[in-house]
Amino acid sequence: MKWNVGTKIGVGFGIVLTIFVIVGAVSYRSVVRQTETAGAVTHSYAVENALTELLAALQDAETGQRGYLITGADSYLEPYTNALPEIEQHRRELSSLLADNPEQLAHLDALGPLITQKLTELQQTIDIRRSKDFASAQAVVLTGAGKNTMDSIRGVLQEMRAAQERTLRVRTAARELDARDTTSAILLGTLLAVIIAAIAGVIITRDIAVPLRSLTGVAERITVGDLTVGTKVKPRGDEIGLLALAFERMGHSLRTLADGAERIAAGDLRVTVQPQSPNDQLGNSFARMTDNLRRQIGGMVEAAAVLGSASSQIVASSTQLASGASESAAAVTETTATVEEVRQTAHLASQKARVVADTAQKSAQIAQSGRKSAADVVSGMERIRTQMEAIAESMVRLSEQGQTIGQIIATVEDLASQSTLLAVNAAIEAAKAGEQGKGFGVVAQEVKSLAEQSRQATDRVRTILGDIQKATTAAAMATEQGGKAVEAGARHTETAGESIGTLAASVNEAAQAATQIAASSQQQLVGMDQVAVAMENIKVTGAQNMASARQLENAARNINELGQRLKQLADAYRI
Amino acid sequence: MTDGSRARQILRDRAQALARVPPPPAADTILEVLEFGLASERYAIEQRYVQEVQPLRELTPLPGTPAFILGIVNVRGRIVPVLDLKKFFELPERGLTDLHRTIIVRGHDLEIGLLADVIIGISGVAVESLQPSLPTLTGIRADYLRGVTGRRLVVLAVERILSDPKIIVHEEVEG
Question: Which one of A411, A422, A428, A442 makes the best mutation probe of the B interface by having the most chain B beta carbons within 10 Å?
Fold first, then answer.
C-alpha cells in the first residue's frame, strides 16, 4: 500500500467518525421517540384531568341546586351558576383533546345528552322551588331521575378514564423497549469505535512514530554535534522517506562544513565552501566566516609582525625609560641638594634683605642731605659764571693789545729791512770808492749786522707775539667754552638737584621696597622649606618610578616574548 | 796695534786737521759778489756791475714784451726794465710783494734791474773755489753761469746776460 501518512490518518479517523455518526443517528431517533411517548403520556393525563374536572363541575352544579332547594336562598345558587360555563368549557376541551381517538369520541357523544338531561332536570327543580315550594321540588327530586342520570354520567366517565389508561400503558411499554435498543446501539457503537481507533493508532504509531523517533534521535545526535550517523530508514515514498532523505542531505552538508571547519581548525584557511542555495545561511555564513577568517588571520599575521616589532621597540623604550628614571632619580637627588643650597641661600638673602632695608633707610637720609648740597652747588655755579664773564672781557682786551704790538713790530721790521738795504747800498758805494771807501764799507757792514740783529729780534718778538695771540685766542675760546660749560653746569646742576630729589624719592620707595623684600624673602624662606619637603617627596616618588620602570621593562620583555609566540602561531596559518 | 789706540789715532788726526787755521787767500783771487736768493736757492753776481739795490716799487708791466720782462720801474728819473731770472732758471713763481728787491746792474751801456726774492749781502768768493757748471745744466742756464762754489752758491756771469742779444727787445706792433 503506497499510502502517505495523511491518507492513513484520514482513513483511521474516517472509520471512527462514521461509527460515531451512526450512533448519533440512532440516539437521535430514540430521543425523538421518547419525546413523542412523553407527549402522549401528557395528553392522557390532560384527558383524565379534564374528565375529573367535568365531573367536579357537574357535582358543583348539583350541590348548588340542592342548597337552593333546601334553603330557597339565591346565595346557595351561586355554585350552580358558576358551574354551567365550566361544564361547557370542559366539554369543548375534551372534544378537542380526543379528536384523534374515535373510541373516546364515541364515549363523548354518548356523554353529551346525559349532561343536557341532567342540567335540564336541575333547571326544572330550581324553577319549581322558585315558583312553588320546597315540597314540590322535593317530590321531583324524589323521583330519582336526577340520580340515575348522574350515575350514568359517572359510568361513562369511568369508561373513558379506563380507555385512556390502556392507551397510556401501551405507549409506555413501547418507549421502554425503544430505550433499551438505543442503549445497546450506543454501547456497541462506542466500543467498536474505540477498538477501531486503537487499531488505527497502533498502525499509525508503528508506521510514523518509530521512524520519526529514529530521525529524532538522529537530530538529537546532530544537535549534540555527532555527524557520523545515518538515518537507517528504509527507502519509502512518503513524507517520512522524504524527511529521511532530507536528513541524509543535511548530514552530508553538515559533514562537508565540518570537514571544512576541521581543515580551518588545522590552520588551512584555503577552504572554499559553496553555499547550497542563496538562502543557505550556514553555508553563506561559513563562506563569509572563512573569508573573514582569512582576512582576520591575515590581519592578525600582520598585526603579530607589527606587534613583534612594536614590542621590541617597547622593550627598547622601556629600557631607555628605566635608565631615564634612574637618571631622573639621580637628577632629583642633585636637585634636592640644590634646593637645600637654595634654601640656605634664601636664608642668607633674607638676612641680607633686612640689612639692605636698614641701609636703604640710611640712604634716604643721605639723599635728603644730597638735595641740600645740590642747591648749594647751583649758587656756587652762578658765582663761577660771573667770574668767567670777567675773565672773558680781560681776554678780549689782551687780544686787542696784542694786535697793536703786532703793528709796532711790523713797523720795526720794515725799518730793519730798509736799514739792511741801506747797508748793502752803502757797501756797494764803498766798493765803488775803492781804497778810500774801505772804512765806510766796514761801517756799512756794521749797520747791516745791526739791521740783521734788529730783524732777528723782531722775528723773535713776532714769534712770541704770535704765541701770545694764539694763547690769547685759545684762552678766549676756552673762556667762552668755560662760560658755556658753566651755564651747562648750572643747568646740569639744577637737573642734578631735581635728579637728586627724584633719587631721594626713589630711595624712599627703595627703602619701602627693601622692607617688603625682607618680608617677601622671609615668606620665600618658608616656601623654600616647603619646596625642600616636596623635593624629598619627589625623590621618593622618583625611586618608586624607577622601580615601576624596571617592572615595566620586565613586562615589555614578556610582551615581546608573547609577540614572538603570537608571530609563530600566526605563521602556522596557511592562507 | 790695538783697535782702541788706532781709533784714538784717527780721532787725534781729525782734531788736528780741524784746528789748523787756513791760509788767508790772496787779494787778487778774491771775487767781491752780491748774494741774493731766488726761490730757495742762493745766487750771486759780481759787485762791480751792481749800481744799487732798490725795493720793488711802482712796477709798470709792459705789454708785448717776452715773459722774462716783468715790466719797467722808475729809478731816480731813469727808466729801467726789470728781468725775472726765475724764468731763465725755471724756478717756481711766488707772486710779487713789497719784500721783493731790484738789483740795478750796469754794463755795456745797458742798465737793467734783476728781480731778487731776498738780498743776503756782500761777500767774498775765492776764484779757485769756483767749480764749472754742472753737466745737467744746458742751454741758456749754462751760458749765464760763471761757477758754483762749495757752499752751493751759484755765481752768475752778468756780462753775458747783458751782452745777450735775446734780451734786447725790438718788436713793432703792426697796425
Answer: A428
